[in-house]
């Protein structure tokens, strides 16, 4: 069985790595929409048509499900994608619910791209789960893009993280929600600034649990049969912006030995 995983760049690899750890027998196709990155400051209409095109591409590759491994694309475009594609579509939403549960100081920071930070969906999630918590919504217009340029961008990324964390510490937070899939790639930097008493929450385990649920529901024979197989699946990596950044992109993949193809495609929208 084959799963399509997409993001604007390297961020979704945090989810891909967890899928790989939990269900290694799946074939994975990772699409980094680098041509259109960063998503965080695009218009919602542009992201919707882009994500639908990526969905159609995955459909043409005969995937069995699509993981939108990007908070921005999920909050802005998952409904449009589901309306167009008949496959199971799994998204990634800001993990505010567990954050509100664990916070003792009742101060929680949510760090996202500007588009996610200002989205109606984030507001809804917060009002659904916050109870008595204080929420500090923070965003960076540059951080995801700079992470895509790691390690050359290390100094800039470290400076941005330092500034953001200083504000979080001033706000008295003890819990941080990483609400952009790029940010867990540099979780260690946040942990170093915020110290051991701050809980940092990222969503990949929850996304994979949801993927398993949807695969079991949609493919009640095929998926359990796959789980009993011992053969590891392949990993194919696709960029929409040529192959120049491919080595940097694939360097985030933990199981690099399973990469069978590195390609570039033109995605017309
Ligand atoms: N990784 C993406 C997210 O989870 C988006 C990064 C971007 O392109 O702005 O929001």
Provide a descriptive summary of the structure in words.
It is a single chain. The chain is an alpha/beta fold and 269 residues long. It has 2 domains: 2-92 and 204-264, Rossmann fold, CATH 3.40.50.1860; 96-201, Rossmann fold. The chain contains 12 helices and 10 strands. It has helices at 13-22, 44-60, 71-84, 96-102, 114-117, 120-129, 143-148, 154-170, 187-194, 204-218, 222-227, 246-250, and strands at 2-7, 27-32, 65-68, 89-90, 107-112, 134-139, 175-178, 199-201, 235-239, 259-264. The protein has a 6-stranded parallel beta sheet, sandwiched between helices. Strands 6-5-7-8 form a 4-stranded parallel beta sheet, sandwiched between helices. Helix 8 packs across helix 9. It is globular and about 50 Å long. The mean pLDDT is 96. Bound molecules: D-glutamic acid.
Topology:
Blueprint: E1 2-7, H1 13-22, E2 27-32, H2 44-60, E3 65-68, H3 71-84, E4 89-90, H4 96-102, E5 107-112, H5 114-117, H6 120-129, E6 134-139, H7 143-148, H8 154-170, E7 175-178, H9 187-194, E8 199-201, H10 204-218, H11 222-227, E9 235-239, H12 246-250, E10 259-264
Parallel strand pairs: 1-2, 1-3, 2-9, 3-4, 5-6, 5-7, 7-8, 9-10
Helix pairs in contact: 1-10, 2-3, 8-9
D-glutamic acid is lined by residues 7-8, 11, 37-40, 70-72, 113, 116, 144, 180-182.
């Amino acid at each position: 069985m084959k799963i399509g995983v997409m993001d604007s760049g390297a961020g979704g690899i945090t989810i891909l790595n967890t899928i790989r750890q939990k269900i290694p027998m799946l074939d994975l196709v990772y699409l980094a929409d680098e041509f259109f990155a960063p998503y965080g400051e695009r218009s919602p209409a542009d992201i919707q048509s882009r994500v639908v095109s990526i969905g159609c591409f995955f459909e043409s590759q005969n995937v069995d499900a699509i993981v939108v491994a990007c908070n921005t694309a999920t909050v802005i475009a998952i409904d449009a994608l589901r309306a167009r594609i008949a496959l199971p579509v799994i998204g990634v939403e800001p993990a505010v619910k567990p954050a509100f549960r664990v916070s003792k100081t009742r101060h929680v920071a949510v760090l996202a791209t500007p588009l996610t930070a200002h989205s109606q969906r984030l507001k809804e999630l917060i009002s659904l789960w916050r109870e008595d918590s204080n929420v500090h919504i923070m965003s960076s217009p540059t951080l995801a893009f700079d992470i895509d340029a790691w390690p050359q961008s290390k100094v800039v990324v470290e400076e941005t993280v330092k500034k953001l964390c200083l504000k979080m510490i001033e706000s008295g937070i003890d819990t941080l929600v990483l609400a952009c899939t790029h940010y867990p790639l540099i979780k260690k930097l946040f942990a170093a600034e915020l110290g051991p008493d701050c809980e940092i929450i990222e969503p990949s385990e929850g996304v994979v649990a949801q993927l398993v649920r949807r695969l079991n529901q949609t493919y009640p024979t095929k998926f359990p049969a796959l789980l009993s197989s011992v053969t590891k699946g392949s990993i194919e990596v696709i960029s929409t912006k040529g192959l120049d950044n491919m080595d940097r992109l694939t360097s985030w993949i933990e199981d690099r030995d399973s990469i069978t193809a590195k390609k570039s495609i033109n995605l017309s929208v």
